[in-house]
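Hey, I'm writing a tutorial for new members on how sequence and structure tokens pair up, and I'd like a real worked example in the thread rather than a made-up one. If someone can provide the structure for the chain below, I'll link this post from the tutorial.
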Amino acid sequence: MAECADGTGSDTMTGAAAEVRRKPTRAEKNARTRAALLAAAARIVGGSGYAAASVAEITRDAGVALGTFYNHFDSREDLLDQLLPDIGQQMLEFVQARRQGIEDPLAEEEAGFRAFFDFLQQRPEFYRILYEAETFAPDAFERHVARTRDGYVRVLRRALARRGRPLPGELELEALSQMLLGVRHFVAMRYARDGDGARAVPEEVIAAYMRLVRSGLGI
């Protein structure tokens, strides 16, 4: 048995070191390649729009062979149809992580509101992807809107229940969620956009939103 410099056997290598040396599985490699292609598409669409996102440009940005693209997506349209749902899910997970563990409904709502704009600062391409998707990837746009709306309905239902408020009907809850989500996007248009990037929303704007939530929803 080979001996290490300190006299111990090499077979005593820690599990952590062994894990570092483990080769990724085929499934892991495929997941990484697919993620790299989606990330490249997000950068290109975020910077230049859907029309500029050719397969050649995406694979070049991702550092992936052109032929490899078709192992993961059927076509350019297939990738672009998955782009908004993919980055939209990242946004929802980011916001949910900021809400996690907050018991007070008002504090939870403020955390979620702030998180949305923090996500825009980290991923400013989300804004252009979202707004161009309605024209260039309408099915993806509808899926994203429905997923976001349905999640917010659950948030509102839970917040009102915690306060012991009577629950509105499903259509009213849905309408409220659409209204509050609309606030986010119009606030982003006015206060968060900064050229191709995003800037922090002023505290006065956040305070105005929370005043609206308190007086309008009573949570």
